[in-house]
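PROTEIN DESIGN WORKSHEET
SECTION A - STRUCTURE
LENGTH: 97
C-ALPHA CELLS:
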C-alpha cells in the first residue's frame, strides 16, 4: 500500500527501513525523519504523516530500547526550572519598599 504519494513510499518500504535500522543499531531510536533519510527521501506536504506513523507503530522492531525507556520518568514540568534560581523574576529579587 502506498503511504506517501508525494514521495512514493509504501508500507513495505517503511517496515524494511525500520528492520534495517534496528539490525544495524539495536540501540537506536527510530523516528519518521530517520526512516525518510534511510529511504533517501524527505517529507513533502506532511499529509501522509498520520498513516506513516501508524505504519511505523505496526512494526515489531519499532520499540524503544529498554535502557532508554526510563529517561523521561525523571523529568517533569515541575522539575524543569531551566537552571534558573528561585527568584528569577525581577519583582522577586527586589524587596518591596
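SECTION B - SEQUENCE
RESIDUE ASSIGNMENT:
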Amino acid at each position: 500500500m502506498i503511504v506517501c504519494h508525494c514521495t512514493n513510499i509504501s508500507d513495505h518500504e517503511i517496515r524494511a527501513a525500520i528492520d534495517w535500522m534496528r539490525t544495524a543499531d539495536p540501540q537506536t531510536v527510530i523516528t519518521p525523519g530517520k526512516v525518510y533519510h534511510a529511504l533517501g527521501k524527505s517529507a513533502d506536504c506532511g499529509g501522509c504523516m498520520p498513516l506513516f506513523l501508524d505504519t511505523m507503530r505496526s512494526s515489531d522492531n519499532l520499540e524503544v530500547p529498554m535502557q532508554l525507556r526510563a529517561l523521561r520518568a525523571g523529568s517533569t514540568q515541575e522539575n524543569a526550572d531551566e537552571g534558573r534560581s528561585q527568584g528569577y523574576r525581577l519583582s522577586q529579587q527586589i524587596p518591596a519598599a
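SECTION C - NOTES
Residues 2-65 form one domain.
The radius of gyration is 21 Å.
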